[in-house]
Design brief:
Helices cover 30% and strands 33% of the residues. It has five helices and nine strands, in the order ββαβαβαβαββββα. The structure holds benzoic acid. Benzoic acid binds next to helix 2.
Length: 158
């Protein structure tokens, strides 16, 4: 059972890239007192995530923030060096690249998936959320393709 609309995100220690290297962050600190768009991808640099999902949020970032969103966060079960390199390669300066390297956040949300058949191991499902002060207001999960979790769909819901 995954997290539901109306529930509060779990607190997990994850990583972002700081000026001097990887930094630990508590998810409760990233979301407290803020309106946040969070989206998750199965893998940095995979085709659908690189050609469609992340670039959609890069293009729409200003419009999303103009709707009162304080931050846009992208997470994946990838290490922080990969997440940082992926964000830089996509000019995603307006997006916080959040590494869930061990898949702890995806698991705590009930939104992990096993992509072992594709040799990718444990990953996140593809989803987008609108989160207000840590509480989930919208949860859109894509089982296939990038549709319900796209920047366009999230923007329309804001
Ligand atoms: C993608 O293209 O987004 C993708 C490829 C393989 C596994 C998961 C996602």
């Amino acid at each position: 059972m995954s997290i539901q609309v109306g529930e509060t995100l779990p607190n997990v220690e994850l990583q972002v890239m700081g000026k001097d290297g990887p930094e630990a962050v508590q998810t409760q600190d990233l979301f407290a007192g803020k309106k946040v768009v969070l989206f998750a991808v199965p893998g940095a640099f995979t085709p659908g995530c690189t050609l469609t999902h992340l670039p959609g949020f890069v293009v729409k970032a200003d419009e999303i923030k103009a709707k009162g969103v304080d931050s846009i966060i992208c997470t994946a079960v990838n290490d922080i060096f990969v997440m940082d390199a992926w964000g830089k390669s996509q000019n995603a300066e307006e997006i916080t690249m959040l590494s869930d390297g061990l898949g702890e956040f995806a698991t705590a949300l009930g939104l992990d998936q096993d992509l072992t058949p594709m040799k990718l191991g444990k990953r996140s499902q593809r989803y987008a959320m609108i989160v207000n002060d840590g509480k989930v207001e919208l949860l859109n999960i894509d089982e296939k393709g990038v549709d319900k979790s796209s920047a366009e769909t999230v923007l329309a819901a804001l």
